[in-house]
Design goal:
Blueprint: E1 2-11, E2 14-24, E3 29-33, H1 40-47, E4 55-60, E5 63-64, H2 69-72, E6 75-78, H3 90-98, H4 106-115, H5 129-142, E7 147-151, H6 159-176, E8 179-184, H7 187-193, E9 196-201, E10 204-210, H8 211-215, E11 218-225, H9 231-235, E12 241-245, E13 248-254, H10 257-264, E14 269-276, H11 279-288, H12 294-300, H13 303-306
Parallel strand pairs: 3-8, 3-9, 6-7, 7-8
Antiparallel strand pairs: 1-2, 1-4, 4-5, 9-10, 11-13, 11-14, 12-13
Helix pairs in contact: 4-5, 5-6
Length: about 300
């Protein structure tokens, strides 16, 4: 179990993380979602023991992480940079990290490197970005830790490389109940890999939700009425969003499809379609209800990626 309890991390006057409370059970695939600067990387560096919290606690199985080698041996952190490994070969990586992680599996390391055809004797600074990321992920998987942290692990990878890296991670999660925490500004990636997601913005945790429950709990209603309902009738539905185009009303409502249809019956719609939303749409509408702008939310939920806006 990983816990953050009222955790604060500041850099001068800037609060990178503010009063964060979070619990991550063992064996979970957990996603940290938010725009750049939201606090995702700060949480990963706190869990890995790179940062010391200014106040509050960060614990693994009840023990504070910072400055405790026995706890830090349980964690491998893959950040979004690989330049620090440039002068190393694969053999250098294996020797370096096997000295820090007693459970490092050298046979697994060699097998995975052969499986993706990584050149054993070349320096990593001659590798492509995707090959470097593969090498570092393989190192993390071979370390024998209980927890693997990935900071924008798939950023900049081509589709083939993404599939290969994700497959390696999924195999490890299934084989040994590895706890994986993935940070991303792309909701589609979180959706593919994770069971649970925490949404962060400006150093604060907005909510933590089970992804399957999120997707089944919000719907879009497309409907029309012979006699248009007044504002109070629409308000009684507690919509997250409502707009009208011509004679058609578009209403975003929380609840199951069955409950929503029952709620709509008193309004006597001429037609009423209840449509499940994509996960991106769910987060956008829920957070609009919290007062966040649609433009910011589209960036947070990964719409940036669709227009090739880089991190």
């Amino acid at each position: 179990m990983i816990k953050l309890e009222q955790t604060v991390k500041r850099f001068g006057e800037f609060a990178a993380l503010n009063d964060a409370d979070m619990e991550i059970p063992a064996g979970t695939a957990f996603g940290l979602l938010g725009s750049n600067g939201a606090g995702k990387s700060t949480i990963l560096r706190l869990i890995s023991g790179v940062y010391k919290p200014d106040s509050g606690r960060v614990t693994i199985d009840g023990r504070d992480v910072y400055d405790d080698p026995a706890v830090m041996e349980k964690v491998f952190f893959i950040n979004d940079e690989t330049v620090q490994f440039g002068s190393m070969t694969l053999g250098d990586l294996r020797r370096f990290y096997s000295g820090f992680y007693p459970k490092f599996d050298k046979e697994l390391f060699d097998r995975l490197c052969r499986a993706v055809n990584l050149p054993e004797k070349r320096r990593l600074d001659t590798f492509s970005k995707g090959m470097k990321r593969q090498a570092v992920v393989i190192t993390g998987l071979s370390s024998g830790t209980e927890i693997l942290l990935l900071d924008e692990a798939f950023d900049g990878l081509d589709p083939t490389m993404r599939i290969i890296v994700k497959r390696m991670l999924v195999d490890a999660m299934l084989d040994r109940q590895l706890t994986v925490i993935i940070s991303s500004h792309n909701l589609a990636e979180i959706n593919e890999m994770c069971d649970t997601v925490t949404m962060l913005h400006q150093g604060r945790i907005l909510f933590t939700r089970d992804i399957d429950s999120v997707k089944g709990d919000v719907h879009k209603v497309q409907c029309a009425f012979a006699s248009a309902p007044d504002d109070s009738q629409i308000a009684a539905l507690s919509p997250l969003h409502h707009e009208v185009s011509g004679s058609v009303h578009y209403i975003i409502i929380k609840g199951s499809e069955e409950d929503i249809r029952k709620a709509m019956e008193p309004l006597s719609p001429v037609f009423c379609d209840v449509i499940p939303l994509t996960l991106e749409e769910v987060f956008i509408y829920e957070m609009e209800g919290l007062g966040y702008s649609a433009d910011m939310l589209r960036a947070v939920s990964g719409k940036e990626a669709e227009t090739n806006v880089s991190k």
